[in-house]
Amino acid sequence: MNLADVARRAGVSPATASRALSGHPHVAEVTRARVWEAARALEYVASPEATGLARGTTGRVAVVVPHLARWWFGAALEGLGTVLREGGRDLLLYRLGDAGSRQAFFDELPTRRRADAVVLLGFGVDERERERLDRIGVGIVAAGTRVGSHPSVSIDDHAAGRQAMDHLLHLGHRRIGTIVAADPELDLAQPAGRSSAYRAALADAGITPDPALSVTVTWSPESGARAMGELLGLADPPTAVYAHSDEIALGAVRTLRRAGLRVPEDVSVVGIDDHPLAAMTDLSTVAQPAAEQGELAGRMALAGLAGEPVDPVVTVPTRLVIRGSSGPPQAAGRRWRRS
Predict the structure, then answer these.
(1) CA 161 to chain CA centroid, nearest Å
(2) What's the CATH number of domain 60-155+290-308, 3.40.50.1980, 3.40.50.720, 3.40.50.2300, 3.40.50.300?
């Protein structure tokens, strides 16, 4: 079945049938209803490509993510998808995968414009990739990071890191370890603010950073567990640990408990995110609204497509959530009491 069949059954021209099915405002309601009735009777399905060709759009927004398994990406994607669906746009999802897949994606991008806008979730781009994005001639929005001068929504990573570090310092900790998260293959724009916050907080407290207290790992709970093992192996282990994410922090807590140490009496742990498991495990953290960032990115994309003004940079606030994994350090010269 094609559009001509629908038009013939409804007793209208193909042009009128097309306008009725695409929601054109200059179609009488009685005519629109007759065309839709004919389309349903014939089980007609409009070709997205043909419809887009007629109106100069695809009706889709491309969303590019480096990961799907991590909590932040799933939550942001859910918020983004809800807004796009309510705005009448389909979501076209691209997962970058490894470095080779990422390069192939950006190589092919200018030759296959399949969407009216592109939203980048949680990863930065280099100059070459930015140039490829600019060449496709559609609006670009970034969520969880910033990409050149394109509209973006994210948290202030430095401010979030300071909330975590200042909390530990206010509790009285002076020997604080940090577990830095890195994904060198995919995340070219690391959350550097979370590391700068660690150094700045120590400097403001008059503490000289000890390089041995900083461990860089990949972004996973297992890596957090291994990093905590390294910190426990030091001659003078930390009394508190600030992790770049809750997933890493939960891995660190696992190692501490398996070592027979108490949290927070022996070692305090604070993360960033407010992952759903953080409340269940009583983890102190700095909460960031992941779904809200996705929703805001979706609204930015829709506003740009409608020709409406878009804020160039939106920073959503974070907040410290104090739970049972952080507390004051034991007295100097303490001995760890095995639980």
Answers:
(1) 17
(2) 3.40.50.2300
Q: What's this model's pTM, rounded to 2 decimal places?
A: 0.78
pLDDT digits (tens, 9 = 90+) for 234-286: 999 999 999 999 999 999 999 999 999 999 999 999 999 999 999 999 999 99
- Two tokens, residue 310: 């878009």
Instruction: List the structure tokens of 121.
Output: 């979730």
Q: Domain 157-287 - what CATH class?
A: alpha beta
Which DSSP letter does residue 336 get? P
DSSP string, 248-290: HHHHHHHHHHHTT--TTTT-EEEEEE--HHHHHTT-EEEE--H
The number of residues in the chain equals: 339
C-alpha atoms less than 13 angstroms from C-alpha of 230 in its C-beta half-sphere? 19
Give the model's pLDDT for residue 335.
47
Q: Where are the domains of the chain?
A: 3-55, 60-155+290-308, 157-287
